[in-house]
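Reopening this one. Same input as before:
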Amino acid sequence: MTPPAPILPLQEALPSLGAWTAAFRSADIPVLASTAESLELMRANEDAFDANSIGEMIVSDPLMTLKVLAHAAAYHPDKRHTDAETVTAAIVWMGITPFFRAFGPQPTVEEHLRQQPAALDGLMRVLRRADRAARFALGFAAHRADPDSAVIHSAACLHDFAEMLLWIHAPALALQIRQRQSVNRQLRSAAVQREILNIELADLEQSLMKAWHLPELLAHITDDKRGHDPKVQTVRLAVRLARHTAEDWEDPAVPDDLSDIAQLLNLAPAAAERLVHDLDV
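Same output, byte for byte:
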């Protein structure tokens, strides 16, 4: 007999990675209010917009990006074709009118967490961090002349999507994690996650990407355990720098981040530092 689906939002941790995956796999994903508003403006005059202009708007919202890529993967008619690895590619594959038909008026995170301002603040911090990480990653990829720079940008944008979903669907647990780490900044994120959630969010992320059949390259680039791949390093270092500089540039880990970035990009340390500050605008 199939166990009943857990009631969202979750108040207590689920027992296993499979249970977490099942709970989040079918849960609705609200998006930023600005994204929902822009979609409705575009819908009212869809002939004026192409896949590039819609994709450029969506790509700044990791939650809507995730929804579009998951939808495209689920309804791909022929897996012999190349997977849609970016939002623009997914919209090209779907077509403009079918895209708007598939994505009607969107629920928003601002409304979803209206009664939980601390959770909304936590989610917004992760979204801002993702935006900075994506800009860093794109800049690093451009410096390396990587042909997959658009996918690398998407991967950095989505790198922490499991944490975003936790703030949306289990805000009480996300707050517990943040409070534990605010008391002791030396605690490793993975250890706190295992203690409070029974899983690591990185593992949940990979499990959900497999469940949603997201493109293999995207899953590969977001997997920090494949650390020797330059594409993975590009995303991992961009995410790491964005995390360590979320408040300011005084975190003691930043010099190591800059040293590793300099090595990846074959730059002198001072040149790497100038590059990241130029990208952080």
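So the earlier flakiness isn't reproducible anymore. For the record, The radius of gyration is 19 Å.
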